[in-house]
Design goal:
Number of strands: 67
Oligomer: single chain
Mean pLDDT: 82
Radius of gyration: 39 Å
Distance between the termini: 8 Å
Structural class: mainly beta
Largest sheet: 8 strands, antiparallel
Number of helices: 5
Strand content: over 45%
Low-confidence stretches: 1-54
Length: about 850
């Protein structure tokens, strides 16, 4: 009888189905007792009908990988991981993500960002702090750091990554008012009952004629929005109040000399009224053109309506007064309270703060500047009125009176810059987890400048927060701020004070200004308003700021997930909260059904189990659905194979497809996992062990390889990157070592009580060079005796060109153990062992 078995397989005879294959062969279906190494169904070929059918139990396989070959399976030398960098070059390397379809590794050594390819590490840039994760979407890379998200853009021609920096690093854009002419209107002699309407008509005439030439007469709020070539928002400046030094005009009273017409009626004599118009001017300090010319594609200027003192639903108040022998007629505009007049500083401050809180609602785009930093930015922005002054005033007043929906649960919202521990992309949707809110770094004081000089300056800015946090920033430029806007907006509602020290031309005594801040009506930012709604001079010397260490006490929210579009990954469109801390998020396959079109799906692992996160096509809602228990310890314990997710839950190896969870193995020693696309297998490793376990998905069971990792591990894009004593390695595109130590031991177990005479064991082994020992032992009745008794041993040192026989003498029932322990060349192969016996 010839028995053909495969290694690392435990099977038992199942006599449920016997079919004839040929006249002299029968095929017996076997049921697996344990996960098997080779194919799911093993054929036992009987050449002698009276012989029994033994089974094979594999005890150990090391550094041997199963490979399907025709109808059989062959053990070959497992591929060794590829060395990307030697130990010296890999010192301190932390893998972050992959690029170019997995061919290039993006890694960091401290604050240095590196690109690792073809055995070479190339420095990309220096980061502001150590990165926690990296995400590549389209031609943009976002690295999360302790100081905030750091952005890089890919040069579409060279493919190189161009650093763009933190959001606060963008140029300081000044929006100021430049006087541009005087407009006048005559109010003809009229009776008092018609005087209010005549004043409103004269004011409208002045405003309309100024607007026809792109000029303004009243204060506005304005800001600048920077976008890249894809339309993504790169940076937004805080809104500032733009006005002339005199502030609002024709907003308090219109004074007339009383008179009498030819009929004896009291009238107001004719009078001429004037208003100084201005044009919105935009400028940026020098030195920004070369750095930002290729990054900022457009600069969008947004402005609010003018604060006109008009109200179409009310009439002006006409007051006639006498005093000390004189008479005077005064007209108070109907909408006087709608304009931030210098005579009403308290009301003016409320108007400006309310408009800042609703700026996104009330603003419109005045101009879009293409390639703004290709040359020096210094130009006027003509603004034509969208509506009549009265309608503009009514619309603005209605907007300011409308309530603002303030977020109730700040733990589930992201209202300021943030960092994240991990980011995952699925289609055109990004999911961030491990969210830490950050304090926005203060911009240059030039963004609040109402007027500027032409002297070199250096500025130190300090922001204090209600939580006790404190941050600092330093800026410099060639045009010093000489006065600031009466409105200061800072993008953090917790800010309580902004203080700036400015040194001009290196003068030791700085000038400074300090602005108290308070939360605005939106609850998303803090505002400061001056005691007078006019320009605030920057000329009061004060003591230097006490510069200490920046303090940020924000805690990481491990249960918060933030959703954004891949085209704008930092603009959060939806959030959701899990019941337990999130350990890993991976993209999940959609169902393909019509109702699932446009949605994005993620598989969320937490300490409570597994959930499917579904995001709608608009990316403004996200819903979680629990699909089962099986918590994983960290992000190293899950990997994406493209059509399913593999995960380690305790000692269980799971495969998740859609909402279906399948258990592959229940006793897996390991604390990290990876999907290796070239080999189509799952690899499980352990930092406390010296082996890695491989699960080929096209075959059953597993095998092991020698591997001693040193903690660093990244599974991404069908590969795994890790460090060993040899350096930085990857499983992808590996090759067998010239000399690999292999071990294999399998026991051929008797499956019948019939007596047979065992004559030899045939071992189909081939190798161009092998140095080791092949042993055949008696294992005693199904391996009950733990110490097999050697029956024959063959020492090999050289080439093995064909299968060989090892003669043995035994009577069945008997268990035969075959073991191979040797150093072999890369072409080693071991096929199915065979027992040769006679009745």
């Amino acid at each position: 009888m010839i028995i053909v078995c495969s290694a690392n397989l435990t099977v038992k005879l199942s006599a449920v189905h016997i079919r004839r294959k040929t006249r002299s062969h029968t095929a017996v279906s076997l049921q697996r007792k344990k996960p098997c190494l080779y194919k799911k169904d093993i054929m036992l070929v009987n050449t002698h009908s009276r012989a029994g059918s033994p089974r094979l139990r594999a005890d150990h396989v090391l550094n041997l990988s199963p490979v399907s070959h025709t109808d059989a399976t062959v053990l070959r030398t497992a591929q060794a991981p590829r060395i990307l960098l030697d130990a010296e070059a890999a010192e301190g390397i932390v893998p972050l993500t992959t690029d170019n379809g997995g061919a290039t590794l993006i890694a960091a050594r401290g604050r240095t960002l590196l690109s690792v390819s073809s055995g070479t590490a190339t420095e990309i840039c220096t980061l502001p702090s150590n990165p926690s994760c990296a995400l590549i979407a389209a031609n943009m890379m976002t690295l999360m750091t302790a100081r905030g998200p750091f952005r890089l853009d890919r040069d579409t021609q060279s493919g190189a990554w161009l650093p763009q920096g933190l959001p606060g690093d963008f140029p300081a854009v000044c929006l100021t008012a430049r006087a541009a002419g005087v407009f006048s209107a005559v109010v003809r002699q009229t009776t008092l009952d018609k005087l209010g309407a005549a004043c409103a008509a004269a004011y409208t005439d002045i405003a309309m004629r100024a607007s026809a030439t792109g000029l303004l007469v009243q204060p506005v709020l304005a800001r600048a929005v920077m976008r890249d070539s894809s339309g993504r928002i790169l940076h937004t400046t805080p809104p500032v109040a733009v006005m002339l030094p005199a502030g609002a005009q024709l907003a308090d009273t219109w004074n007339f000399t009383p008179g009498t017409d030819d009929k004896g009626n009291e009238v107001a004599d004719a009078a001429t009224f004037s208003a100084q118009a201005y044009v919105l001017h935009i400028s940026a300090p020098d030195g920004t053109a070369s750095r930002w010319a290729d990054t900022v594609d457009t600069l969008e200027i947004q402005v609010s309506p003018q604060f006109h003192p008009l109200d179409s639903a009310a009439s002006a108040s006409v007051i006639s007064t006498r005093g000390e022998g004189t008479r005077r007629i005064t007209v108070v505009p109907a909408g006087a309270g709608r304009c931030p007049a210098p005579t009403r500083p308290g009301a003016a401050a409320l108007l400006l703060a309310g408009a800042a809180a609703r700026f996104s609602t009330i603003a419109r785009t005045a101009m879009v500047i293409k390639n703004p930093f290709a040359t020096a930015l210094d130009r006027d922005i003509p603004i034509a009125a969208a509506h009549s002054p009265a309608r503009e005033a009514d619309t603005l007043a209605a907007s300011l009176a409308a309530p603002i929906n303030v977020p109730e649960d700040t733990d589930q919202t992201i209202s300021r810059p943030f960092s994240a521990r991990s980011g995952t992309i699925s289609g055109n949707t990004v999911a961030w987890s491990g969210i830490t809110p950050l304090r926005a770094e203060p911009p240059s004081p030039l963004v609040w400048a109402a007027t500027t000089g032409n002297r070199r300056f250096e500025a130190l800015t300090r922001v204090r927060f209600s939580t006790g946090d404190c941050i600092f920033a330093r800026h410099s430029g060639s045009c010093n701020p000489t006065a600031i806007s009466p409105l200061t907006v800072y993008p953090d509602a917790d800010a309580v004070e902004l203080a700036v020290n400015i040194t001009v031309d290196g003068v030791p005594d700085p000038v400074s200004f300090t602005v108290p801040l308070r939360p605005d009506a939106s609850g998303l930012q803090a505002v400061g308003t001056a005691e007078s709604p006019l320009h605030v001079p920057v000329d009061a010397p004060e003591a230097d700021l006490d510069v200490g260490e920046a303090v940020q006490t924000s805690a990481c929210n491990t249960s918060l997930i933030a959703i954004a579009r891949a085209a704008d990954p930092l603009s959060v469109t939806a959030t959701t909260v899990t019941a337990a801390p999130v350990t890993c998020i991976l993209p999940a396959r959609s169902s393909g059904a019509a109702w699932d079109f446009g949605r994005a799906r993620f598989l969320v692992f937490s300490s409570a189990g597994m959930e499917i996160l579904a995001v709608n096509a608009s990316r403004n809602t996200a819903a979680l659905n629990n699909i089962g228990a099986g918590a994983i310890a960290n992000a190293h314990c899950a990997a994406d194979s493209g059509d399913r997710i593999y995960a380690l839950a305790g000692r269980m190896l799971l495969a998740v497809t859609g909402s279906t969870v399948r258990v592959i193995d229940t006793d897996v020693p390991g604390d990290r996992l990876a999907w290796i696309a070239p080999a189509r297998e799952v690899v499980v490793a352990d930092t406390d062990d010296n082996v890695a376990r491989h699960y080929p998905v096209d075959l059953s069971g597993h095998y092991e390889t020698s591997l001693v990792i040193r903690g660093i591990w990244l599974a991404h894009a069908g590969n795994a990157f890790f460090t060993t004593a040899a350096g930085l390695l990857s499983f992808g595109e590996g090759t067998p070592d010239p000399a690999t130590p292999v071990r294999w031991r399998g026991t051929l177990c008797s499956a019948t009580a019939r007596r047979t005479n065992v004559r030899a064991v045939r071992i189909p082994l081939k190798c161009s060079h092998m140095r080791g020992i092949v042993t055949v032992s008696r294992a005693w009745l199904t391996g009950v005796n733990p110490a097999p008794a050697p029956m024959a041993r063959m020492t090999i040192d050289g080439a093995v060109r064909a299968p060989f026989l090892i003669p043995v003498s035994a009577h069945a029932p008997v268990d035969i153990t075959v073991s191979v322990e040797a150093d072999v060349s890369a072409d080693f192969s071991l096929s199915l062992p065979t027992i040769i016996s006679k009745p």
